[in-house]
Amino acid sequence: MMDSTEFILLAGFLGSGKTSLLVDWLGLPDAANTAVIVNEAGEIDVDGAIVAEGGTLPMAMLANGCVCCSMTSDLVFTVRALIEERARAGHPPFARIVLECSGLSRPGPILRSLLPLAPLGLTVRVVSTCDASQAVQHAAYFEEVSAQLAAAGTIVLTKLDLSSAEAAAALAASINPLATCVVETDRTTRARSAFRPAAVSGAMPEIAGSTAHPRVAVLRATFTDAASWEDRLDWMEDLAAFCGDRLLRVKGFVRPPGSTVPLLVQAVGSLFAPPLPMPGSPDLPEGLVVITRDLGAAALRGGMPSPLVRIAAMRESPLTCAPVAAT
């Protein structure tokens, strides 16, 4: 069992500074016991060559193109090979394995492909870079940008020497108010902040009334007192099935009826992590923040009618409110 090993998916749109951030991190003592997997969309693995210049760390290349689109079994094989080789060498488990994705990758399908690795006990999280100089323009044309930002536990603003952080920070907050946003010009401090595990917070985010991304809605779901534990689980399963690719992120707390211990629930895309007990925080309020694309509160209530669940818009654009057929 490898409870201490993190799997960090490093995402971000083309040219947003993923490789530079990773190289800065790997140059720090904090990065000891890190393995790296680099996935390039092109046939020439430029990013892998750049990362390899940083030292002799364990590294694997995936040269099959965008890992979220094809040959995802190669990723499972590569992760297993890195872990098994480490064990054969008699070394302790890696502290972390970092997958640097192609700029065209969407985190959700990649994380779903890792399900065969569940017995290894990897802790999975997403770090996404956000180019302060171009993110707003890119987000208007490329759905990959919103998918990468919405999946992240940590969003790192880059290219701050070319632009102020204000517009990009507003974009990141509008797409994913659940993420920790790193705004730091010092490269060493930025790298440390990016790869430092984010603390679990019981506070629900403050959501502004408008959005910088008209296709993204931030909703809140709460369960009535009549909802059983099975009702809660069934609703979350139905949510993933109904929304499909339109479900970007879920995070919040549910409380089994009669229990004093709330459970942390998280999902990237339609992939839910096992609920995590929070015994030290008995007063956490129950509720789920649901981030969707092209799907508003009215459409979700219409597609998943239930007297046991209340769905409210914390923030949504009028463009997201029209009913959408289930996928």
TrEMBL record:
<keyword id="KW-0547">Nucleotide-binding</keyword>
<dbReference type="Pfam" id="PF02492">
    <property type="entry name" value="cobW"/>
</dbReference>
<dbReference type="Pfam" id="PF07683">
    <property type="entry name" value="CobW_C"/>
</dbReference>
<comment type="function">
    <text>Zinc chaperone that directly transfers zinc cofactor to target proteins, thereby activating them. Zinc is transferred from the CXCC motif in the GTPase domain to the zinc binding site in target proteins in a process requiring GTP hydrolysis.</text>
</comment>
<dbReference type="InterPro" id="IPR027417">
    <property type="entry name" value="P-loop_NTPase"/>
</dbReference>
<dbReference type="InterPro" id="IPR051316">
    <property type="entry name" value="Zinc-reg_GTPase_activator"/>
</dbReference>
<keyword id="KW-0143">Chaperone</keyword>
<keyword id="KW-0378">Hydrolase</keyword>
<feature type="domain" description="CobW/HypB/UreG nucleotide-binding">
    <location>
        <begin position="8"/>
        <end position="173"/>
    </location>
</feature>
<feature type="domain" description="CobW C-terminal">
    <location>
        <begin position="227"/>
        <end position="302"/>
    </location>
</feature>
<comment type="similarity">
    <text>Belongs to the SIMIBI class G3E GTPase family. ZNG1 subfamily.</text>
</comment>
<dbReference type="InterPro" id="IPR036627">
    <property type="entry name" value="CobW-likC_sf"/>
</dbReference>
<protein>
    <submittedName>
        <fullName>CobW family GTP-binding protein</fullName>
    </submittedName>
</protein>
<dbReference type="InterPro" id="IPR011629">
    <property type="entry name" value="CobW-like_C"/>
</dbReference>
<dbReference type="InterPro" id="IPR003495">
    <property type="entry name" value="CobW/HypB/UreG_nucleotide-bd"/>
</dbReference>
